[in-house]
Specification:
The chain is of the alpha/beta class. It has helices spanning 3-17, 19-23, 37-61, 82-86, 99-111, 147-159, 181-194, 210-219; strands at 70-74, 91-96, 117-121, 133-138, 161-174, 224-232, 235-243.
Length: 252
């Protein structure tokens, strides 16, 4: 079994066993496939706070009022970000590798009475996300995908942007537990050995080489970018907010 297939299988298993905790790793959501109303409201509020923050960044740093028609959320899980995006966009498509996660998202969308959202399972080609999108978003997702695969996904996601579309993509660049080659091997082997005995899979936290991330972004024609630092338990990352513009040029 390859690590690539393991990450997809693990995420689907998490969607069956611990969907809300897997999306927002807080103990309040541990081993719950249906949180009570108070916890659900707090969960949804965290997504709205995230969207409010990135909207402030987009409008203050990337050029004025932002009113996207179509938005794509990659790695949508149970829909934590899709739902607040639906308040700001005509249509939002949430895609994920785990049908178990998508099943919860569809139930929640009915509970919230939303008619302008869709959820579908995707592969790395993102062929199910037809057409271009004015906003392409992914947060705390790519870190769970091995970097070699994730870099290809990053390029594919940027390719889904419409002209003048905005990308908001999060990558991890430093995981202290994985900084040396021996520690990476120990962690990987330990994870594989424990797999048959774990009820709930262990999520990977993969750091990405920033030189490759920047190369992909620049090669895609992106010239305007704003960076937000993140820290998840000592794992350092960046939220990259950028606009795709056809008339962008290099500084000379």
């Amino acid at each position: 079994m390859t690590l690539r297939s393991d990450t997809d299988r693990d995420w689907n298993a998490l969607g069956e066993l611990d969907p809300y905790w897997a999306v927002l790793t807080h103990e309040a959501y541990r081993e719950s496939t249906a949180p009570d109303q108070e916890k659900l409201e707090a969960f949804l509020a965290s997504g709205r706070q995230h969207v409010d923050r990135i909207w402030d960044v987009i409008e203050s740093s990337l050029g004025g009022q932002f009113a996207p028609d179509r938005a794509l959320d990659f790695g949508c899980g149970v829909g934590r970000i899709v739902f607040p995006l639906a308040e700001r966009c005509r249509f939002v498509l949430g895609v994920d590798v785990a049908e178990s996660m998508l099943a919860h998202a569809r139930v929640l969308s009915k509970h919230l009475n939303l008619s302008n959202v869709g959820f579908t399972r995707c592969d790395d080609s993102l062929a199910v996300a037809d057409g271009a999108f004015d906003l392409v978003h992914s947060y705390i997702v790519l870190q769970h995908v091995p970097a070699r695969r994730g870099l290809q996904l990053l390029e594919t996601l940027i390719g889904k942007l419409s002209e003048n579309g905005v990308g908001v993509l999060h990558v991890l660049y430093d995981n202290p537990d994985m900084n040396s080659r021996p520690s990476r091997w120990v962690k990987t082997v330990g994870r594989l050995l424990k797999r048959p005995f774990r009820r709930i899979p262990q999520m990977q936290m993969n750091a990405y080489p920033l030189n490759e991330v920047w190369r992909i972004i620049q090669a895609s024609g992106i010239r305007q970018i704003h960076v937000l630092p993140t820290d998840h338990g000592g794992c350092l990352g960046l939220v990259l907010c950028f606009r795709r513009a056809s008339n962008a040029a290099y500084l000379v």
